[in-house]
Amino acid sequence: MEKTGYPLWVIDIPEKVGEEPCKFHIYKDPNGIPARFYERYGLKKPTPKSGG
Question: What residues form DSSP beta bridges with 17?
Answer without folding.
Answer: 20
